[in-house]
Amino acid sequence: MTVDAKTTEKALRLRALSEAVLVLPNAWDAASAAVIEAAGASAIATTSGGVAWGIGRGDGQHATRAQMLEAAARIVAAVDLPVSVDVEGGYDDVARTVREVVALGGVGINLEDSKASNGTLYTAEEQSERIRAARGAAAEAGLPELVVNARTDVFLFGIGEESGRLADVLARREAYAAAGADGFFVPGLLDLEALAEIARGPLPVNALAGPGGPSVAELAAAGVRRVSVGTAVAQVAYSAARAAAEEVLAQGTYGGLGGTLDYPTLNGLFVK
Fold first, then answer.
1. Are strands 224-228 and 183-185 parallel, antiparallel or unpaired?
2. Which of these, 182, 214, 210, lies nearest to 196 by C-alpha position?
3. Residue 221 structural domain
């Protein structure tokens, strides 16, 4: 497969962005991606949860590969930024998933080591094989520069004894790096000392941030190089929709419809 020069340039740009601190307010459809781009983002990362909700499915690998990648294709077409696609656990065929991501113009993936939302994880050895499969498939598809962000859900799902989780994560960090990962994502962990220890390893560290947690500046000081917010921006959007609907339905007033991006601004993101 031949990948165009623009896609390769975007992959290289995404790689370079993790040399500083890359902040990613995650998108779930073309409109949210375009708005995030207009807000000044350097790259777009999708949220599998947001995509799933947008098509009426639950998060946690309940949407299909085709559904996730159809959404990703629309996002790639809507923006000029590098797009990293949340492929959850890879949908049982990591190599096929990667080939399809490259074909639609994605230049990065987020690949988790959970088998499903029930809290079971692949072993470090199993996940390493899956990362190698992703790396090989990217090269075969013509984009060896594809950024593979390896996610571990040890802390997110509370796997094993609390006292042993950090050691498990550190071992997975080493294994995933050796398998060819480009980044290491540890959702569920916001302890700055633990993140700093993980960040001393061979991979740029990605943290999942949100209300009540450390700021981007604090995470950066701990060595974190990628900060994402998962489903949070989608939750804000849907919460605003619910509040506005409740006001109109219950009170017959329109306060919740004010203070928004105006119609010409939004429409102008797509009508050139």
1. unpaired
2. 214
3. 5-231
